[in-house]
Amino acid sequence: MRGTTARGGGRADRSGSTPPPGAPTGAAGPTAPPDPTPLHAATPLTADQLRTVDAYWRAANYLAVGQIYLLPNPLLTEPLRPEHIKPRLLGHWGTCPGLNLVYAHLNRVIGERDLDMIHVTGPGHGGPAAVATAWLDGVWSEIHPETGRDAEGMRRLMRQFSFPGGIPSHIAPEVPGSIHEGGELGYALAHAYGAVFDNPGLVAACVVGDGEAETGPAATGWHSNKLLDPVHDGAVLPILHLNGYKIANPTVLARLERRELDALLRGYGHEPIHVDAGDGYDPAAVHQAMAAALDLALDRISAAQRAAREEGSTERPHWPVIVLRSPKGWTGPAEVDGLPVAGTWRSHQVPLAEVRDDASHLAQLESWMRGYRPEELFDEAGRPRPHVLAQVPRGDRRLAANPHANGGRLTRALPLRGARHYAVPVERPGTVAHSPAQTLGRMLRDVLADTAGSRNFRLFGPDETASNKLQAVYEATAKNWQAGYLPVDEHLARDGRVLEMLSEHNCQGWLEGYLLTGRHGVFASYEAFVHIVSSMLNQHAKWLKVSRELPWRMPVPSLNYLLTSHVWRQDHNGFSHQDPGFVDHVANKSPQVVRVYLPPDANTLLAVADKALASRDLINVIIAGKHPSFDWLGIDDALAHVERGVSVWEWAGSDVGGRPDVVLAAAGDTPTLEIMATASLLRLHLPELRVRVVNVVNLMRLLPAEEHPEGMTDRDYDAVFPPGTPVIFGYHGYPWFVHRLTYRRNGHPDLHVRGYKEEGTTTTPFDMVVRNDLDRYRLVMDVIDRVPGLVDRGITLRQRMQDQRLRHHDWIREHGEDLPEVREWVWQW
Amino acid sequence: MRGTTARGGGRADRSGSTPPPGAPTGAAGPTAPPDPTPLHAATPLTADQLRTVDAYWRAANYLAVGQIYLLPNPLLTEPLRPEHIKPRLLGHWGTCPGLNLVYAHLNRVIGERDLDMIHVTGPGHGGPAAVATAWLDGVWSEIHPETGRDAEGMRRLMRQFSFPGGIPSHIAPEVPGSIHEGGELGYALAHAYGAVFDNPGLVAACVVGDGEAETGPAATGWHSNKLLDPVHDGAVLPILHLNGYKIANPTVLARLERRELDALLRGYGHEPIHVDAGDGYDPAAVHQAMAAALDLALDRISAAQRAAREEGSTERPHWPVIVLRSPKGWTGPAEVDGLPVAGTWRSHQVPLAEVRDDASHLAQLESWMRGYRPEELFDEAGRPRPHVLAQVPRGDRRLAANPHANGGRLTRALPLRGARHYAVPVERPGTVAHSPAQTLGRMLRDVLADTAGSRNFRLFGPDETASNKLQAVYEATAKNWQAGYLPVDEHLARDGRVLEMLSEHNCQGWLEGYLLTGRHGVFASYEAFVHIVSSMLNQHAKWLKVSRELPWRMPVPSLNYLLTSHVWRQDHNGFSHQDPGFVDHVANKSPQVVRVYLPPDANTLLAVADKALASRDLINVIIAGKHPSFDWLGIDDALAHVERGVSVWEWAGSDVGGRPDVVLAAAGDTPTLEIMATASLLRLHLPELRVRVVNVVNLMRLLPAEEHPEGMTDRDYDAVFPPGTPVIFGYHGYPWFVHRLTYRRNGHPDLHVRGYKEEGTTTTPFDMVVRNDLDRYRLVMDVIDRVPGLVDRGITLRQRMQDQRLRHHDWIREHGEDLPEVREWVWQW
């Protein structure tokens, strides 16, 4: 097992002051294999190319430093003075030179090979690098004409960075060419794979920092190649950037011996190509080695694709990975105040921190910046000189301009046959049951079938598609699988468009990458475990919020969650699988981007899904059961219900037009069942009581209109929930969440919510609702306790309900299943 | 690089009907190394041992099946009839036989080597296995005498499983010997490492399922060995269990060619030992191979520990990992209704689903169970026969009885010097600033120093200890590091007790394992990114809630989060690092176990930390800044403030005893600053206004006493927040969260909350609060708008505040820093 080393032909300057990152001191173990030998001691760059790539790199580095430090004087046309320096120095220098190096070299190969390529930059806190290169390539100025490619533009570019009214310090939606926010680490690989799925002509160059590589999501992100079809998908070229340090620590991967690192990368399914130019990091040697590595990697990608596409090979390729070691903060100050900086964690943010107050720091900054020889890179007017830009690709081939990274430009609407097409017949509500998820599965099947040619829709899930009753989709496509096949296998295919891996992180990350490059998808997950991606949700919501404010970012398809196997039906699993709080989390995000739907039955789920699949720039959370549950609405009523978001179900109540005595409201399938059973009990036992039944499918409707675009006006809200009338609300999740939505409403003091309260374990469906006080008997008692004047009239009924609850308790412990009158209950009105 | 194969000497029965899991069909690549050769074709088990280990295994399998299916007739003393079968069949069979096999073999080596061992079972949905073995070993009956080791006990054991009033179907707190809930997958390795840190005599045998292995947390969990000190820590023996399938899919790792899998495991820092008994899975051959593998692995662990402890080796050992392939649902029905079941994903839950209604299923179940030959395993009274139990260890050495797995039994209180010891002097409030986190760092330093001998306290964090200003801890210990060292390194040591890896999952998982084995710790994280472990928090909270209800589970030290680098001070990072919603998530968990503290200054943080470190069975979330911020309270006042949780700061207001005109309340350091500045402006400009200043440090105090053990009575709440008096509340997080806590309070209609609203980017500290309407000027306007009769009097002031906000807007865009009057503001009263 030999590694490949792309070694530059330039003479390594071993007198360089920058220490090598992470040369390990451990002795080789007893079974050490021979060291990898250099396969490429080539010098693929001509002298001209070398000059250009180095000039571009220096220019980008210069601009990165300038962004961190400078207000005016961008070209250093006068000696640096303290007033040229930003009062607050904010940014991350350490990763920039490595990112700029990669970018400069990608420009060359894009041009030479006419590549359709995007870059995904894991170490996205190196914002100054991406901004610098976008400006050098002209894209920044096309979006922001006031920030032209001249001295004034350069001044604005530097000033705006991490400055009030300017741009953030990370790679963010504001940075053209990016689909990846670099704030929270771990998702670069998943995003890159998501981008290339169903984009056979695309290559995503993905820089994975050695900090990020320690995260769990990155660690399993490598295995995405097990679901990458070399025929229908593009390629990801991971570039593992070992700069040796995190914020204040060495990194694990940089301190592994090379044979252990190589074993790891091979275990991930990759063939490593090391960029190795000796310990001195002579730029010319590194450039030649990097160029050789890129050429080799791209040749191997082409060969693998050719083998699969033209020669019919079905072997999973051992895709190349480039391993680039370079010193953290390379080309920055070697030493500051007597401590080593370049090549250490001290380069992470701002290497020289006291520039305004310490004349030696100021002088050191000036000499650092002048060391890039800006006069060779920019003319007097601040324009990049032609040789700097000689390898910049043209038009949309530029990394910052590639349309895949502004996916809305490429989005085509999904072919949707409409909810009616899949409707289940409902002759009498509450008498026949269907599985909502299974019904939806037929709609998703057809979306998959109708996109078999366009290949712009996928279904993602952590090994739960069948468990979640969506198996109809296998009539249209299969689960993607690139490893070995066995006779017993079912529904697996190399070109399948259902992606299943037991990693919610991968599912979410792939889908995000797929959406941000303009395609559509659904992520189906167990409700409890979608919390695994809570933090990813945060980042995507922030991305969408900011994107919507940028006119040049085109709307992308929404992120659709189908949360099934929900809190109320964990018969197989119990307490650990019961958590309905993802909604609470989602609702904290910007109201512009979040929607939550709780369809009560199969037809309403179809109507919700139809709406969600056609939407843009949103996060739609849809919670629906997989077990058969009662149908309440025919498809027309379901569509109207979704249109309204909150409906009075007049047919269910005994409210004959006037003011009701009580409102029974429900959101969610299990609460709807219990609320309907409650209404039934009340109509039976207290026929004179005017009961209004309300169903909430669009949860954000409960918010005030000023707070959320879906919010109801107070007038509309009051019409449904008349102030002064007790409301008994059965809610799918934590009960206080409904209060958090409604606390400003006039009728809020009259609202009583029942929901889930962290009480449960493996048990029967009805016992779950009893444990959490959401059962019909408890709800009847709530009504009696809250409707004025009812206590006396209802006292016998109240006692009967109490007795019934106790009877239930004993019954299930004896029989292991729910009371017959609960199991056999149907709506009778 | 040769793999090691422990191959049993028994003749492989190739006619067996069970297909091998995941033999890959891909051809070997061009650089394929020679296949690993068997190092061990030994038969370490004597005939007696083989008989016992097989009998134990069969007994455990029998009991597992019985738990899924049977109500009475546990010994099959009469032919199975439908009424013997549970009406609802709930549970997961597929993983049980493999788990039972491992357990049976661990029993042997524990006895032979007098091992102090616990087991951590990743595939914890195999609950029937762990319950069966705990009963066989006698531990279950010691805890539950009514469930004795006899026929009646066996009947109860089977009936209670996943049955109302019984036990959950997963390995949960109810299962003795476990520190790991098997519901959500991914954390077994991290828990196992957490358990063995600072337990040099302990071995944690950790079964990692091939499903779990696909998760991100598991994928980086392997790298925990980079921070395992062979001298001061025990050992983790991972057993990668490849049964080939997840719920409905093959697994990635089971379908890798062996050389790729071996590379991966070596890349993780392990030396693989394969249990290989041929494709037929002849039990005798597997037993011999498994025994040989275990002996080899434990020998290697001993050798590595000896080398480090006795010979002073500082090389990181290549710890053994056992790779066990066995068919999913092994020994279960080979075929059901014409479809293959054993060895496929169809074994995942209940292989025979129609046992009550389908006579052939019933017959198949009976023949399956009788196939274990129960009469050889249990006597007529249902007692396990002596030869079955011959290898069960004694007393606390039994896996289900090991005290490390009931860590409260081993917990020793931390030596705490008390908050006063670290107090910062506060002569005049609001005039001198300290970094709260830095101040706390000195307390943590001494806890680390004072536990240098007992080694029962650790600090965990994702590479942020210094960034979070806790670096004083390095005076007492270092960061643990087992890889190569470079001259530039600082604060690294092989025996360090600060654990830093850029993986919140590892940090949380290690800490959980450390706590559940009875030790103490703190997890310091950026506030925004602690959402990465939201789902882990869920599981730990559920674990604690259930544990507290089990009298035999002793209280363990609390899980302490220090969330610093919080939402209001992300100057370097911006929007992606701004999320204060973890508290909202935590507050959804059982009130018995969650506490949230928002200390306003350094001394209050000390008082909170002192309380948290002494607590048990809680999750304490402490949010505090790292930047210098004003000191408000001397240490005596801080201690009293924490004691009360909510305090009126009489010295800060102009409320002279009577009913105030307005209450200004704050929770969090930044809100406290703005609320104090607001109070100051009001006292200056509206001196006749009676202003009460309230500070909330213990957020759960705002809940009603009926809802939370820390909740205030309505009477106490009303005394602080008089109903009818406007309350302007500056809150650290999302404003609606305060409403969610207080919606039942009498004064709730008078409450107006300002907090964070997803508006922000990289900017100055004051601009952040302005963007989110939490600034002093906006708050003064709020007061004017809400205090009756103030609009007219305050109109000029209101306009001035409005102007000041506009002035701020222009100023920061010009100067890049906050207004001088904001930067230089001090409390002057």
From TrEMBL, chains A, B:
Residues 1-42 are annotated as: Disordered. The lineage of its organism: Bacteria, Bacillati, Actinomycetota, Actinomycetes, Kitasatosporales. GO terms for biological process: carbohydrate metabolic process. It holds the Pfam family XFP. Its EC number is 4.1.2.-. Residues 46-409 form the Xylulose 5-phosphate/Fructose 6-phosphate phosphoketolase N-terminal domain. Belongs to the XFP family. Keywords: Lyase, Thiamine pyrophosphate. This is Probable phosphoketolase. HAMAP family: Phosphoketolase. Residues 626-827 form the Xylulose 5-phosphate/Fructose 6-phosphate phosphoketolase C-terminal domain. It comes from Allostreptomyces psammosilenae. PANTHER family: PHOSPHOKETOLASE-RELATED (PTHR31273). It comes from the Bacteria. One of its GO terms (molecular function) is magnesium ion binding.
